[in-house]
Design a protein that fits this description.
elongated; about 210 residues; about 0% strand; mainly alpha
Length: about 210
Amino acid sequence: MQLADTLSAAVLALRQGRPRDAVDGLHTVWSDASFAEAADLRDLRARVGSLFAQALLETGRVAEADRVCRDAVRLLRQLRDADGLREVRSLQERVVRALAELAGVEKNREEAAKVAATPLAVLLFTATTDEDQARVRVQKASALWTLGQRDEALQLAEDALVRAEAIANVTWTVFARTLLAEIHAQAQPSAAEAHLAAALALAAQAEEFNLV
């Protein structure tokens, strides 16, 4: 297939909402040495770069999207293409937001790993109230769930729910139920729906709508 045909097919896939189908074709065009060296096609190459970055972003390949987007921006600056820069800037903002979200997710996983690795007895050492006892269990259960340790998370979340309900604590009862709803979502959707409905009802009754 000629480069132009490859590009056309990739652009069509992207416009039709099929970024995964567009990535390989756009990569082929973007990486073509003769295309990259053609001085009279630099404006087109910049456009291909922005489309490639968009496709990468929409398939979750954020770091790659960032690199390609930066290359496109540098090329547009060299061309003094103000209109092109404005278009790519909006894409670059999306990439930056996605990078920030990934950084946040990674930070959360690191924090969750620390909590999950700490024995429950240690975490409970300073839990002097019944509310603290429920809170610590919910937080450790959430950390375990984040790391994919479903059975341990489920057991601890259920324990937390019993303790939170025993002292009629709205906050940690709602958090325990929403966590249980998430844990049960795939394997037991009916149980997940029941936990979520109960959490919503309790939050509404207590006028604590920010909890869910």
